[in-house]
Amino acid sequence: MFDFLFPDLKKRSFIPEMMDLPDCDKKKLINTVKQFAMLNYLFTKSRELIKRYILSTIRSNPLKEYTFLDIGAGGCDVVIWLLNYCKKKNYKIKISCLDNDPAIINYAQNRCKKYEAISIINESAFSLDKLQNYDFIFANHFLHHLKDEEILKMIRLIKKKTNILFLINDIRRSNLAYLGYTLFTGVFYHNSFAFYDGRLSIRKGFTQKELEALIDDESVEVNRVNPARILLIGYK
Fold it and tell me: Phi/psi class of residue 137: alpha, beta or left (left: φ > 0; alpha: ψ in -120 to 50)?
């Protein structure tokens, strides 16, 4: 029971998550994406971080039309919120959402049908060179899915394709976060991968020192954010 609630988090795990397996149950996968929308709202601070770093930049020049790319956008809950926020403020923005799982692409396309400013791109994140440059590139809970050697390559690609700034929000390993997540999802989330994969995601998360040593780029800031988040910020 102790290991179930308080695993050894000294080292980062590299076990594949169930939702990343090609033969995973697609119904459970979509249920997971739906459930992650609420988890994003409650715990990831994505909206607050976008407001603090990206929307503040837009506010300084509100007449320009901006481009925004969300890598691993999943169900597009963050970008739908962003587009609606920008509409209220009369900011002009075009949003692209990148994913490469056919089931998630189909779900995202259906969710975004009525949003002309949102386009869904079915590509691997490592195919960024095929795409245009974007003013802002954002990724939430994407980096921990990668191996260490892939992370450095990914950061370089993102940096190359960014016109203004990129923001990468991910998980900082924490026993308290693991315990809280286990209790919350164990009670409320079923018939999905949210319980298993979310707990594994925390074990696959980072410490600030790990990412700083791995990236080794003074132009990329690595910051701790509560609760249990690690934030990468890169300016052009």
Answer: beta
